Write a sequence for this structure.
RNA sequence: CGGGGCGUGGCGCAGUCCGGUUAGCGCACCUGACUGGGGGUCAGGAGGUCCGCGGUUCGAAUCCGCGCGCCCCGACCA
């Protein structure tokens, strides 16, 4: 430690908010470079390497039919036309880091590598005999995130393990997907991070099935719904729930315009009228963005949804086939002639109306009159207004009933540790990555893609494995196996004994962090706790007088005095137990 | 992109409202001594474009303008 680069800090840098960020900074394991960009110091890098070792083992674990992940390395610098061919130069939009070389050729720094893998696949595979194939890399990705956050949780430059599977058909893809799904559970288990696999949105990836592996934590940025009864788990973006009408049986009543001065929210309106929020129809305005090879086009859309629910923007996007939907700002609303607070689809023309399924089945809802301070009672879909698109666009929330078993669901926050996608043939077709099947027919490869963010995983490992004093590294990830501390090293025999012990431990195959600094006991013990190695060994005159050393396991055990002669075996047994 | 906070030695902060000696404190760092089982004590020391540029002024860390950067909330998110 007298030579170690990266000092521990007693005070936490003020801009660290999450515990993992604070501990990694205090431990001298990371150094901030720019928003969402970090340098990894020696201790931090050792853990990153160990995480990667675990991932490599699990990616290369042989499947039932002998398939394994094969590691390779793609370029980070990618000609922009790769992303143009898949259309993702548009769908990924501003997230793409772009640059131009001195010949004016455009490149991107790869944010994810489906395009590059499928192109390399195409150049090297012609026959079904080469399939299935699983290729992966552990490499740096670049994403110009609008808002990096939480230390290592959301970065603009990060290391990712990305694996891509290539199969002859959907059944093969299912097998690859299951293999990776299982491998991911093992990776997170070994890293000491509990995860919940949840149904997710495939977003700009395209494709069908996709699961996210969520680490549940209050500092998470994703919201998910969990059924405590049947185990259903889904990101709020895609979560389904039981949608029941509340007023379907009523006889349609006559329209009636009423005065509602100053009442602009559903809350106020329902309170004023003494009706449940489910008796109202909420109006929301969005700008939808559509895009294809020729460019992008914007269109204002009107959303009608029952007053007690909110719009799920991912579902809305999918229902419209838009590449983006965004909440309309006040300027655009004024231009479109909407009366915010008193709007409805009744009498509305020249704009697409998207209605949630429930709102079309209810009867006699209170809706806006499209005039300030006026609302209409008893509006009914089909009679008073008609939607252009009817779809499930409602956002699931805690307490809503599970679609499988009608149990009220819990809503939790989580961080996405990894995601697995069934991509299908989208990329193979865009890149004409065909192989010849047994009948000599050309077929596109059926792909899957599977990613894990390495630094984000590191952050979650620290979030999950710590106490008030510092980090508690899981056995497989600790930067060093043993932390040897000397006290009063200038006194007779202490330094010599510690030097020899370190040598013996290393000869026994253990890695050792040796605190040989001339610091007070308090400083050394506190640093040992902060840095979090599983076993601490103290060599001091007091113990030496009895030919002993002292052991302490980081997980909170008591100090134990053991004979110096057994030191190596004793350390090993503590490590094996942990 | 909208809202909020912040920018003064490596870290944490005071000073800024109300302009005026040499910009201060704690931690860390260097030298020496003492000390030695949970961030010890004393003495001496080094270290500063006060985020940048422009302006106001006899005089700017402090006032004004324009930028830049960092953090948080939201929007967004493969």
């Amino acid at each position: 430690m007298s030579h170690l680069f990266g000092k521990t800090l007693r005070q936490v840098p003020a801009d660290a908010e999450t515990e993992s960020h604070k501990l990694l900074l205090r431990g001298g394991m990371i150094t901030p470079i720019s928003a969402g960009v970090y340098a990894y110091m020696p201790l931090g890098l050792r853990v990153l390497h160990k995480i990667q070792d675990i991932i490599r083992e699990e990616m290369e674990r042989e499947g039932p039919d002998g398939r394994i992940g094969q590691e390779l390395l793609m370029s980070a610098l990618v000609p922009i036309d790769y992303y143009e061919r898949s259309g993702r130069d548009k769908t990924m939009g501003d997230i793409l880091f772009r640059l131009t070389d001195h010949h004016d050729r455009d490149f991107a720094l790869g944010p994810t590598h489906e395009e590059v893998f499928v192109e390399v696949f195409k150049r090297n595979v012609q026959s079904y005999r080469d399939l299935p194939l699983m290729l992966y890399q552990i490499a740096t990705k670049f994403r110009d995130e609008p808002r990096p956050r939480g230390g290592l949780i959301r970065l603009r430059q990060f290391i990712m393990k990305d694996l891509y599977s290539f199969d002859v058909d959907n059944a093969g893809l299912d097998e690859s997907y299951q293999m990776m799904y299982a491998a991911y559970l093992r990776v997170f288990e070994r890293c000491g991070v509990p995860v919940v696999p949840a149904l997710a949105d495939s977003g700009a990836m395209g494709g069908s099935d996709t699961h996210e592996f969520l680490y549940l934590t209050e500092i998470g940025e994703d919201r998910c719904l969990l059924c405590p009864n049947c185990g259903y788990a889904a990101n709020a973006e895609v979560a389904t729930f039981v949608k029941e009408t509340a007023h379907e049986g009523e006889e349609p009543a006559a329209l009636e315009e009423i005065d509602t001065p100053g009442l602009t929210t559903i809350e106020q309106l329902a309170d004023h009228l003494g009706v449940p929020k489910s008796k109202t129809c909420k109006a929301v305005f969005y700008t939808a963005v559509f895009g294809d090879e020729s460019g992008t086009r914007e269109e204002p859309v009107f959303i009608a949804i029952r007053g007690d629910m909110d719009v799920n923007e991912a579902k809305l996007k999918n229902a419209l086939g838009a590449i983006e939907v965004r909440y309309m700002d006040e300027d655009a609303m004024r231009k479109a002639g909407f009366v915010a607070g008193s709007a409805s689809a009744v009498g509305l023309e020249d704009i697409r109306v998207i209605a949630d399924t429930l709102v079309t089945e209810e009867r006699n809802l209170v809706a806006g009159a499209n005039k300030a301070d006026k609302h209409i009672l008893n509006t009914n879909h089909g009679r008073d207004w008609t939607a252009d698109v009817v779809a499930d666009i409602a956002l699931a929330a805690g307490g809503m009933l599970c679609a499988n078993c009608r149990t009220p669901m819990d809503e939790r926050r989580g961080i996405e540790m990894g995601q697995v996608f069934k991509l299908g043939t989208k990329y193979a077709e865009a890149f004409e990555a065909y192989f010849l099947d047994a009948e000599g027919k050309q077929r596109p490869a059926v792909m899957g893609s599977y990613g894990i963010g390495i630094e984000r995983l590191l952050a979650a490992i620290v979030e999950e494995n710590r106490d008030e004093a510092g980090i508690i590294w899981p056995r497989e990830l600790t930067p060093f196996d043993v932390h040897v501390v000397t006290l009063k090293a200038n006194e007779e025999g202490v330094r010599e004994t510690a030097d020899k012990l370190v040598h013996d431990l290393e000869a026994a195959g253990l890695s050792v962090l040796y605190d040989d600094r001339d610091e007070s006991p308090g400083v050394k013990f506190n640093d040992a706790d902060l840095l979090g190695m599983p076993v601490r060994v103290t060599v001091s005159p007091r113990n030496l007088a009895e030919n002993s050393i002292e052991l302490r396991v980081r997980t909170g055990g008591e100090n134990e005095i053991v004979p110096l002669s057994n030191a190596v075996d004793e350390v090993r047994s503590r490590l094996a137990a942990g």
User: Anything to note?
Assistant: The CA atoms of residues 128 and 439 of chain A lie 10 Å apart.
